[in-house]
Design goal:
The structure holds two protein chains of two kinds.
Chain A (H helix, E strand, L loop, with lengths): L1 E7 L2 E7 L5 H8 L18 E4 L2 E4 L12 E3 L11 H8 L9 H14 L5 H7 L11 H12 L8 H5 L4
Chain B lengths: L12 H5 L16 E7 L5 E7 L1 H5 L3 E6 L6 E2 L6 E2 L5 E2 L5 E7 L2 H8 L3 E6 L6 H5 L27 E9 L2 H7 L2 E9 L11 E6 L5 E5 L4 H11 L10 E4 L16 H10 L5 E4 L2 H6 L6 E10 L5 E13 L5 H11 L8 E10 L13 H18 L4 H8 L18 H11 L13 E12 L9 E7 L5 E4 L9 H13 L6 E4 L17 H28 L6 E4 L2 E4 L6 E3 L8 E2 L5 E2 L4 E6 L23 E12 L5 E11 L6 H20 L31 E6 L21 H13 L10 H8 L4 H4 L24
Parallel strand pairs in B: 1-14, 12-13, 16-17, 20-21, 29-30
Antiparallel strand pairs in B: 1-7, 2-6, 2-8, 3-7, 4-5, 9-17, 10-15, 11-12, 11-14, 15-16, 18-28, 19-20, 19-27, 22-23, 23-24, 25-26, 28-29
Helix pairs in contact in B: 10-11, 10-16, 13-14, 15-16
Classes of the chains: A alpha+beta, B alpha+beta.
The complex binds FE2/S2 (inorganic) cluster (2 copies).
């Protein structure tokens, strides 16, 4: 077991992990953060997506020991002060059905809007192409993200939400 | 109407978009949670000679090792043909043989590898031709002793688990009357559901004997019932079993009934006191839940010059896999409806459910209709062409209408199929030839109709409880499952319409069999209709109770009282308005100072009392097995690259008669999602088994499902509303239907574009490219296979007995 420390949704966390432990399992089972989902455990589905230093990555492919000192955001860290404009757009569009893919897709779209505040539909498609959704046919998801950008609610995350640490 | 017919926001969307929605795997069970790992058969068919668990048991952290000897009980929804763990023999690669329960998953996995199972491999049948030959090796020698539902007809000492025969009119006379007869064979391989959430279940039997299961399921009450039946020898009864189902991460039929969940129920009993989790890996999700069954179908159709169909003979042989406890009912449903949505005076259907040594088949969105409509709708295009009739016009002329006699003798419900056909044809500009920009590309158009009825036992019931809170908000507890379709929202909208309470003030709870009202299961696209009726009845009862108490206190005539804007109002006294929040819990104060009334509570129930499954086994005449059909049409504009075979969907249109769209936006969601799921079965999902019966591509790298980059250029949903007389506000189901026509529209469009008629799914780019070069795919397909008929489908001999 090795102690690692990293920032999780704005808060510094320390946890003891074995070298073989996967970040997804550590987040879910040791830290109680349940929004990243287990879908395939081999990098195919994107259900386990988290933001690592702001970039969407698959937490099932990362060893927990690798994230020492880094900043991790899960969906729990995104809408802390109420849903973001992007999340509101998803809600308005009835974008998700079963919702199992939603944590991963919301994060992937959040990361996209942060670097590209007004994405085209195709840019959204590319950004979420690693996140499988079996229910929706993606159409409403794509529309929601494009519309959130168009409405100039550029920041997917409110600045306050990013910093609101230590809850 | 104020709430019904509106595209209301889903009442679960906020929870889902914020990550708050709990799924079964997200629930916490504390440090005492145990984990199970399954020991699986590496053989398609073998005798289990010996299981040595001694080494596994010694691994530190292992709590228990369980084998078939510990639970020698059978289970099955419609046919009790499965043991909880394989006992003397295994029947497919991946079948559960034993389980190791340990403190953590890694230990369980390590110890499972130490369980030593000695097998004596047996010959196996993967091929339908082998499975049906005279002296076939029997997958279930004991078939004649299995319990099953009253409407199954197994053939003892064969691999035929069920044979649904439907006979209407005089089939031979029908063919004699025809000017043109076309007969051909179509094949559809197996497919996988691929819900993104794998099956997961936690079972806990406390020391008082109470068994609770937290299950990712479409069927909480049915699970309780199947568990109670299977575990009855251990003294368990319904009252001892509780199934709790939080949100489900996609079902599509894969989480209907009971598949792997029985393992957790048994294991919980083996380690009383501690919760034990069984979570399927993605691989197991592919090979040990249900798969969509493969089918080979022979269609013989007769038509007159004017295009009217005189006869359809449809023979379907289904590869149902090693266990058919649910899959045989898919076969049954098709056996009743394999004419498609057409008026056909002379019908002969044989739908035959065949055991093979492949993973169990079962329900998948469309419940057999996707499978048979591929062949039927391909066939219709061809026969229309033979008589020189436009295929859309051909369908118009034969389209089923209200009151028409169905294949089994009952009558068709109201529907507007012709309207759906016309609107779809107009939307894809049927008849207008389109030119592709690039020289190697061609554009074709495809068209198909569809229909589907829920396949339900005649006494499948739905029920609802309804109560108010002090603020006038409402809680409804039902046991249908929110599997993504928007069921919770639709129930809220139905209650909202009756009670005048907006849907956002209505909470609809996910099921807990101890607390929520009964629901048979969330399958067959029936819950909007069946459970919607129950919720409507509950809301109406609540309304009556509210009116009653106002009448008692104020003396207004009950006929004058009505609900509006969350108030009780009175026609005779326009200035009277009593807000719900002012009386639905604490009653109404009388001039004497006392209170009348109290908490408003209501319940509602619905069962389709007009149905029966008593049709004659030889003809299916006489019963009323289906409640109603939802019909529609679909069309596609498809671009085909003649070099690569690659296809691009430029536009796809689907018109469906939903009776009444309770929430049009959710109907559109079903059209878009279902259509893409269906297009994937046509264009690239391609399951492969080795010649030894091992699934070769149980993952998303090798079994491709659509990504956000695979969308058609446009999907156009068209909603048609011909009210269903017995539906809530006229609604009928729509969830599955949107997937059904996808494959035949693609096949028909490929032919329109290139002249190539492909009679087997999938219609992959590879297959199209090869066939366009004149290379028969069947000649080069190699050893692996998705359909359990290894030879050339055109040479498949449908056995003589089916001619009987
Ligand atoms: S669980 Fe990580 S990509 Fe599927
Ligand atoms: S909404 Fe079900 S997987 Fe995306």
């Amino acid at each position: 077991m090795k102690k690692i420390t990293f920032t999780l949704n704005g808060e510094s966390r320390t946890v003891a992990v074995a070298p073989h432990e996967v970040l997804l399992d550590v987040l879910r089972d040791k830290l109680g953060v349940k929004s990243p989902k287990v879908g395939c455990e081999r990098g195919d589905c994107g259900a386990c997506t988290i933001l690592l230093d702001g970039k969407p990555v698959r937490s099932c492919l990362i060893l927990a020991v690798e994230v020492e000192g880094q900043e991790i955001t899960t969906l729990e860290g995104v809408g802390r002060d109420g849903p973001t404009p992007l999340q509101e757009s998803f809600i308005r569009h009835n974008a998700f059905q079963c919702g199992f893919c939603a944590p991963g897709i919301v994060l992937a779209a959040t990361a996209l809007l942060e670097k590209n505040p007004k994405p085209t539909a195709h840019e959204v498609q590319e950004a979420i192409s690693g996140n499988l959704c079996r229910c929706t046919g993606y159409e409403a998801i794509i529309e929601s993200a494009v519309e959130a950008g168009r409405q100039g609610t550029a920041r997917a995350r409110k600045p306050a939400a990013r910093k609101s640490a230590n809850r | 109407m104020k709430f019904v017919g509106q595209s209301a926001t889903r009442i679960d969307e906020r929870e889902k978009v914020t990550g708050a929605a709990p799924y079964a795997d997200d629930l916490d069970f504390g440090p005492n949670l145990l984990h199970a790992e399954i020991v699986e058969s590496p053989h398609a068919h073998a005798i289990i000679k010996k299981i040595d668990v001694s080494r596994a048991r010694k691994v530190p952290g292992v709590v228990k090792v369980v084998t078939g000897k510990d639970f020698p009980y059978t289970f099955g929804l419609y046919m009790q043909d499965r043991f909880i763990f394989a006992r003397d023999r295994v029947r497919f690669v991946g079948e559960q043989v034993a389980a190791v329960i340990a403190r953590d998953p890694v230990t369980a996995k390590r110890a499972a590898r130490l369980v030593k199972v000695t097998y004596e491999p047996l010959p196996f049948v993967l091929d339908l031709k082998e499975a049906l030959k005279e002296d076939a090796l029997l997958v279930h020698p004991d078939l004649k002793n299995y319990g099953h539902c009253a409407w199954f007809f197994p053939v003892p000492d064969t691999n035929i688990a069920h044979w649904r025969k439907t006979r209407k009119g005089d089939i031979e006379a029908g063919f004699r009357e025809a000017d043109t007869v076309l007969e051909d064979t179509y094949t559809v391989p197996r497919y996988a559901h691929c819900a993104i959430e794998p099956h997961v279940i936690v079972g806990q039997c406390d020391l008082s004997g109470r068994l609770t299961l937290w299950s990712s399921s479409q069927s909480p009450h049915t699970q309780r019932h199947v568990f109670a039946a299977a575990l009855a020898p251990l003294g368990l009864k319904h009252q001892d079993i509780r199934v709790i189902t939080p949100y489900v991460g996609g079902g599509f039929g894969g989480k209907a009934g009971v598949s792997m969940e029985i393992i957790a129920a048994a294991l919980a009993l083996a380690v009383k006191g501690a919760p034990v989790k069984v979570r399927w890996t993605r691989e197991q999700e592919f090979y040990n839940t249900y798969q969509r069954q493969g089918v080979i179908a022979r269609i013989k159709m007769g038509v007159k010059k004017d295009g009217s169909i005189t006869a359809i003979e449809h023979t379907l042989h289904w590869d149902a896999g090693a266990y058919v406890e649910y899959g045989a009912n898919v076969v049954n449903a098709v056996g009743l409806s394999a004419t498609g949505p057409y008026r056909v005076p002379n019908v002969k259907i044989d739908s035959v459910c065949v055991y093979t040594n492949l993973p169990p088949g079962g329900p998948y969105r469309g419940f057999g209709y996707s499978e048979f409509m591929f062949g039927l709708e391909s066939h219709i295009n061809r026969i229309a062409k033979m008589i020189g009739l436009d295929p859309v016009e051909f369908r118009r002329r034969n389209a089923i209408r209200e009151g028409d006699t169905l294949p089994y003798g009952a009558h068709m419900n109201p529907c507007a199929l012709v309207d759906a056909i016309d609107k779809t044809a107009a939307e894809i500009e049927w008849g207008k030839k389109e030119e592709a920009a690039a020289p190697n590309k061609v554009i074709g158009k495809g068209f198909a109709c569809f229909w589907k009825a829920p396949a339900m036992p005649p006494n499948a019931a739905s029920a609802a409880f309804l109560k108010f809170s002090e603020d006038g908000s409402v809680n409804i507890s039902v046991s249908g499952m929110e599997i993504g379709q928007g069921y919770l929202t639709v129930m809220a909208q139905i209650a909202a319409e009756v009670l005048t309470v907006p849907p956002e003030k209505i909470r609809v709870e996910t099921p807990d069999t101890d607390r929520n009202a009964y629901e048979w299961q969330t399958v067959g696209s029936h819950v909007t209709w069946g459970c919607g009726n129950a919720v409507k009845a509950a809301a109406e009862e609540a309304r009556a109770k509210m009116i009653e108490v106002v009448h008692r206190v104020h003396g207004f005539a009950k006929e004058d009282l009505y609900l509006e804007d969350e108030r009780v109002k009175c026609r005779a006294k326009p200035d009277f308005a009593l807000a719900f929040k002012d009386f639905v819990i604490n009653g109404i104060q009388t001039p004497r100072g006392n209170f009348l009334g109290g908490p408003i509570l209501a319940s509602g129930m619905f069962m389709p009392e007009f149905t029966s499954a008593t049709g004659d086994p030889e003809t299916s005449q006489g019963g009323h097995p289906n409640v109603h059909y939802t019909v529609g049409a679909a069309g596609i504009v498809l671009e085909v690259d003649k070099e690569t075979g690659k296809m691009r969907v430029r536009k796809v249109v689907l018109a469906v008669d939903v009776g009444q769209a309770i929430n049009p936006d959710l109907v559109k969601g079903q059209v878009v999602g279902g259509m893409l799921q269906g297009l994937a079965t046509a264009l690239y999902e391609d399951i492969r088994y080795s010649p030894a019966g091992k699934l070769l591509n149980p993952n998303f790298t090798d079994y491709k499902i659509p990504t956000a980059l695979d969308l058609p250029d446009a999907i156009v949903p068209i909603i048609i509303e011909t009210p269903q007389p017995d539906g809530p506000f006229g609604a009928r189901g729509v969830g599955e239907h949107t997937m059904i026509p996808s494959a035949p529209i693609v096949a028909n469009a490929i032919e329109d574009a290139t002249g190539l008629r492909i009679k087997s799914l999938p219609l992959t780019a590879e297959k199209v490219a090869l066939e366009l070069r004149g290379i028969r795919y069947d000649d080069v397909k190699g050893e692996t296979m998705g359909l359990c008929f290894m030879g050339d489908p055109q040479k498949y001999a449908f056995f003589a007995k089916s001619k009987a």
